[in-house]
C-alpha cells in the first residue's frame, strides 16, 4: 500500500499538541457479504455515484489534518477508484475482524496524534455535511471523549441499539444480533458515525474483545469503556441509512429519486409519471419543463425552459437549450441549441453540438459532429465526424462514411446544401454551400459550392420488355 507510509511533514505537524486537530477515518474494509456481489460494497452506486465517493464528499468540508480510508477486501480496486483523491491515506486491514479491529489499524499511523478522530462507515452515504459538522461541534462543545450520531427509527432492524439516559449520556451500544427481545424494542440506533478523543480511544482500543455473536471486534463496544459519551440525534432517518444489501440500495435510490423529483417540481418542472423517471443530483432544470414517462437524466444535465423531454429518453451529461422537444431518444455528451426537435429514435453521441432550430428525426445517429442552425437530418442517417453548416437538408438515408477501416475522417457540408436520399459521403470530403447531391450518389470527391453532384449509373429502359 503505497500511501500507507506517513510523510514526514505530516508527522511533524501532528507533534504540536493542538487540541483542535482533526483526523477522519472511513471504514471500508468489509466485504459486504449481504450484497452478494463480486464488487466491494462501497463501490456500489446510488444515483450514479459510489457509496464511498459519497461518504468522502460528505465530510470534505471539514478540512481534516489527516484523512484515512481503511481498506481490506478488494483494497486495490477501491484505491484505484479513488486515485484522484490525493489527500486520502489508505490503511490496510487484513484480515477484517470487525469495525473495532478496523480502527485499531490506526494505532500505528496516528501515533503521537493529539486531537479528535471522526469515524464514518463507508456504507452510510447519506449523511449531510451539516449533520457531520453538528456531531463534531457538539463533541467539542461538550468536551466529550466520545460522541455518536444516533437516530430514532420506526423500524430499527439491523442496527446497533444505543442505550442512553434522558440527559443524553450514552451507556452502551448493543448490536442487534446480541440484543435480547426487550433490548430490540429500543428504537434509538447507532448510525456508525462517531467522534472520539484520539488519545482516550487509543488507550481503550487494545481492550476490545470478540465475545459476541459474530466473534468480531466491535467498535461499538468501546463506548461503555468511556467515562462520558454523548450523542447527537438526527431528525431525518434517511440520513443514517446503512447500505448492507440490494434492498437497502434500492430503497435508498428510490428515496433520493423521490426527493430530487420533488425538489424540481417545486421549482417548476412537471413530471407526467414521476416514479418512472430518474434524475441525477447534478441535473439542473429551468422552469416549465415537462418530463414525460420513462425518461432518465444521468450525470451533469442542463435543460432549458419550456422543454418537453420524453417519453422514453435517456440523457447523460448533456445540455439542452430552451423550447426543445425530445422523444424516445438517447443523448450523451451533447449540446442541443434552442427550439430543436429531436426524435423519435435519435441517438446523439458524444461531442455533438446542435445549433438552434435543428430537426433530428427518426433513426438518426450523430457522433462528434457540429450541426448548424436550422439544419434538418430527419430520417435514417449516420452523421459522424462531420461539420454541417446552416439550413442544410440531409436527405433520408444519407451516410457519412467516416471510417476507412483504419482511421476516421471528416465530412464538411456547407450552408444550404441538400443531399438526396441514400447519399453516401466518403470522408474526407467537403461539399461547398448550396450544393445539391443527387439521390443514391456515393461521393468520393469534393463538390464546389453551387453545383450538383450525381454519381450513379444511367438508368436503362428497355421498352416492350417481357419475361415470357
Ligand atoms: C455497524 C455498527 C452498528 C450500526 C451500523 C450503522 C458495529 C459493530 N456495528 O453495523 O452499530 O448501527 O453499522 O450502519 O460497528 N468494516 C471494516 N472492517 C471490518 C468490518 C467492517 O472496515 O472488519 C467496515 C465496512 O466496510 C462498513 C462499515 O465498516 O463500511 C460497517 O460495517 P458493517 O459490517 O456494515 O456493520 P453493520 O453490521 O452495518
Ligand atoms: Ca452497515
Describe the largest sheet. 11 strands, parallel
What is the SS-derived class?
A: alpha/beta
Average residue-wise pLDDT:
95
Inertia-based shape? elongated
Number of beta-strand segments? 40
Our estimate of the beta-strand percent is 25-35%
Q: Provide a count of the helices.
A: 9
Helix content: 10-25%
Please give the CATH architecture of the largest domain.
Answer: Alpha-Beta Complex
Count of discrete structural domains: 2
CATH superfamily of the largest domain: Spore Coat Polysaccharide Biosynthesis Protein SpsA, Chain A
Class of the largest domain in CATH? Alpha Beta
Bound molecules: uridine-diphosphate-N-acetylglucosamine, calcium ion
Adjacency order of strands in the biggest sheet: 12-14-17-20-23-26-29-32-35-38-40
N→C terminal distance: 84 Å
CATH fold topology of the largest domain: Spore Coat Polysaccharide Biosynthesis Protein SpsA, Chain A
Unreliable residue runs: 1-18
Radius of gyration: 30 Å
Provide a compact summary of the structure.
Helices cover 17% and strands 29% of the residues. The chain has 468 residues and is of the alpha/beta class. The protein has an 11-stranded parallel β-sheet. The protein has a 9-stranded parallel β-sheet with strand order 13-16-19-22-25-28-31-34-37, with no helix packed on it. The chain has a 7-stranded mixed β-sheet with strand order 5-4-1-6-10-7-11.
